[in-house]
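Researcher: Next entry in the queue.
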Amino acid sequence: MNESNSPSPPKISVLLPVFNAKKTVGETIDSILGQTEANFEFLILDDGSTDGSCDVALQAAQNDSRVQLIRQSNAGMAVSLNRLIDQSRGQYLARIDADDVAEPTRFATQVAYLDAHPDCVLVGSAVLNIDGEGDPYGVTILPADHDAIETRLLSGAGGVMHPSTMLRREAVIQTGGFALNYPVAEDQDLWLRLARIGRLANLPEPLTRYRVHPQNMSFVRQTDGADALDRLLAKAHADRGLPYTPSTNQASAETVCSAWDRQRTWAWTAVQEGYLLTARKHARRLTRQRPLDARAWKLLAASHFPRLFALLRSKSS
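Model: Structure for this entry, 317 residues:
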């Protein structure tokens, strides 16, 4: 049945903006079409891609009537998301990015939660972090309750993983959608505005696989978004009658790591969380890049003998 042409609107509108993500968007699309909750329309907006991403989306639209492809010249994330919201008809809006993967039960789990909690306007989830090749290296679990999420958002640390979210469409429209004056921080701004009219929640299950690599949006946020984040946090604090200084913003104080250091951090996380094959893969690459750096060899050893390293750490602490 073609949900998008049925008299009644679908339960969910899936919003997927795409820009030059040909290598990963096919897997993303497949993960949405494979959901156990099938009552959705799938809105894909190609934001002026030049790498063939649009062809992948077009093929999906030709094969599944729930998929609708929209094309535009490159306009950026906030403009693209607002256009998708304008086109949507579902009660709930599900977000996914073009390099992430939804677990099969994600929609069913989040719909059940929102149906049972009418005061909740946004529900996210834990995410399984994967590297650029799709190998897992750790789980990110964020606070579950509204107050803790809002506190993290107000600190600039982030309390919600954007590609894991499902939102009430009417609440998003009520708050005006994504603002255009906070580039690469438009999601945090919307979450903070939503927090003033309803409850936010995170589920403990990792319902999305979140791809982390230098090209994804979260990496860009850390390098380019400090000014926008400071401005929106200042406004959010003022709206709540709270004082704010830039030092309140934890994200703006972070040091941008080199690609080598970032890869080493991912690999150590993989060791600690038991994803040893991923850890060894990255450790070998690090030793090839810097063969004289003892930290890379220490990491490689830890990926082969994690229990020994854990024991040595416990004795030295």
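Model: The CA atoms of residues 278 and 284 lie 10 Å apart.
Researcher: Noted, moving on.
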